[in-house]
Amino acid sequence: MEAFCLRWLLLVWQCFVIPVWGLEFYKAAVYEHSTVLRQNLIPPTREEALELMQKNLDIYQEQVHEASKQGVKIIVFPENGIHGFPPTRATIYPYLEPIPDPDVVQWNPCLHPTEYSDTEVLYQLSCMARNSSMYLIANLGEREACEFSDPKCPSDGRYHFNTNVVFDAEGTLIAKYQKWKLFRTEIYYNKPKTLQHVIFDTPFAGKFGIFTCFDILFYEPAVSLIERYGIKQIIFPTAWMNKLPLLSAVQFHQAFAAAFGINLLVSNQHHPEYNMTGSGIYTPLDFPYYYNMKSREGKLLVADVPIITSINNHTLEQSDSQTSTFLQEQKGAVKQEQTDLFNLRDRMKNIQLLIICASIFLLVCVTAEPVITEGGWKSLDEQQNRDLFFRILQSYFTGRGMNLGLSRKEKLQGTYGSKIGSYADKSNNNLYNKDTFTV
């Protein structure tokens, strides 16, 4: 049954995604980081901020060293992984650094650390990349002074940006990207003046694009970057909070990569208390990922990534009488948030069919095998099959999640527990609250 389910899933996967890739691979790593956080809400001094950031940078250094031993060419760290989540402009300011524009200035912080002041973090990241001969992508806060003659200049006289930095294997800063779509809690950051489509080149895999977390939900900048420039490899630092039914990290990111036939390198935060977990290296050939709501430890994922040679233009379908769904939007308020609303009436049949097909797959492939309980092997009878099937549907539609401690790419393994309820074995009145299943 296991082999049948995997073959069936592969067939469905190939029906939806038929990419063209080369025979060459490169080794990539993403790190799901359990960020060391500051609990004190009083704004720190620069020295206190550096002390906290050093704890996270030390962990980064360990992961770079481990990745280097495995021959990794490029490594990605998560959004807010260095300084955490300071809640206000005053509390985040001591963590920020000025970041010169790589399109204007060529700078290697590891070789020239004193060229710019207050760039201790950039210096360490640069040296990590240089000493490991590895491309390195990290996220940190950026500050930029502005004149009050600038009508958009904040009242404190500076811009704060959520910025990704890219270092090449020599430690040179070759790209930076300022997050375009800020989440509603990011009140301490400013939106850039202009939309950026940032692309950088590598000798081992060609061009990469980059954007951050909430960006992926919008046509600009995510879809437009892929469609307009034919980018097949995306770097994606994120601090993704899982929310069912449609915003579970692994689910969404795997689907995004499949839809566009790209390699998507996702590095997420690891804070189960905030529903943050789910990192992966999603490719047309394989999709190793990590999702664990139990462990408090970070996780380094390393995988061989195919170099995609296709230049197919993956555009969204649209009829003659209808423009792209991304353009047919209205503004509305949902839970006091400004939200884009779309008319999906004509697409509901397809959506319903997709849900039914997914449900059938779960019923066949999850419930057809025995489950392992604390007391040994237990086979589910017909009633229990139905019970588990509807528990899965209930989890999907109500948002009460399934806790999967997943880190392997060969098979689906994990636990389901109290979050989706218990089911009773009527033969002996036992309740199985923490069962493990394998597909």
Automatic annotation (TrEMBL):
SUPFAM superfamilies: Carbon-nitrogen hydrolase. Residues 37-307 form the CN hydrolase domain. It is an enzyme of class 3 (hydrolase). InterPro entries: Biotinidase-like_euk (IPR012101), Biotinidase/VNN (IPR040154), C-N_Hydrolase (IPR003010), C-N_Hydrolase_sf (IPR036526), DUF4720 (IPR031699). One of its GO terms (molecular function) is biotinidase activity. Residues 1-22 form the signal peptide. Belongs to the carbon-nitrogen hydrolase superfamily. BTD/VNN family. This is Biotinidase.
